[in-house]
Amino acid sequence: MAVWAALLLTLTLAGAAHSEETSVLYEQYDTSTYTPGQVNWGIKEGKYGYGWCHSASNGILCAFDDASARINLPEGQTLDASYLKEDFAVAMALWRGAAFNTGEELLPFDIDFARADQAPSVYARVIYDPNDVRSAYVDNKNAVLFPGTAHYQRVSIIINAFYLRGETDEQRARNAHILCHELGHVIGLVDLDGYAKASQSPYLFSDVLMGYGWDRSFYGPTDADIKGAAVILGIHRNEDHVFGAPVPSADSHNEHRLVCGLCDGYRLEPHDYTLTGGKAVCACGAQLSGLTYIHFSWLYS
Predict the structure, then answer these.
(1) 0.70 cut: is pTM over it?
(2) Which of 233, 242, 261, 264 is the most buried (most CB within 10 A)?
């Protein structure tokens, strides 16, 4: 009997948590100004209206259901999909090989198979279903969360061997990349094209792991994916942001952006006008007419 029926009473992931509600918005949401090569990422937090479940912290323990990889096909044949365990191991290694740069040190991600004495939170299970259009997905419907949180206690990654074949090296590399993408969801990263509701082809986000397209110019997490993962896992916290000078924002006429030089995330801040040369000017360059400025000064003084 595989480990699927194990009751998880305690879990290493429960010990360290990140700030559940970050004050930083993300470049990803401004799809109207997106250009290829621009840093883009988005995270799962409830206030953004996207699927909220994610890992509680760095240190994600995984298991692979070996029994599920031996599949009895309708034709009476048996498919040995054990190669997917190797591909899943490569996907984890791609995340372990990534690290967030704080400017002073590199902070790695900790994702690996659980030892016999450890309770995994992520279970990889193989299916064979030609009627399911998904090649792999995180089974949020059946996930178990820690009480009172949106943090995974137990969740499955479902791998569809009908699509993820193992005959060629190119297929195996694609498998690992797709599974690396699914681990990104477990970490807490969103489907960027899914959030943008992008129906166009090619997809907007083909140059990052969490996009739907893959232009083959990279393999595994990109710089943008790493930065988003560092924020959602609490490796890079709200108090760690290093904001530069305010810059104009496409999100609001009444606010500007303060962009973090480490993670490229930003938060919105109301304009702060001062009287300069007879004009009310904000540090980001926004201006008000003198009459409007006087009216505001009188109202709020």
Answers:
(1) yes
(2) 233
